[in-house]
Design goal:
This protein is mainly alpha-helical. It has two helices and no strands. Helix 1 packs across helix 2. It is elongated, with a radius of gyration of 12 Å. The two termini are 16 Å apart.
Length: 44
């Protein structure tokens, strides 16, 4: 499963992150989380 940047930003906004700096930082962290999760699953 893969999320678009827009989907990630929408979800983070729903979580209460409003400032652009917070959104960018949280988006990068979320993208890394999904990358690590999918990489781990592909190894199994």
């Amino acid at each position: 499963m893969s999320l678009t940047r827009r989907e990630i930003l929408e979800e983070l906004s729903r979580m209460g992150i409003k400032r652009i700096e917070e959104l960018k930082k949280a988006c990068r962290e979320y993208e890394l989380y999904w990358l690590n999760l999918t990489s781990f699953r592909s190894l199994n």
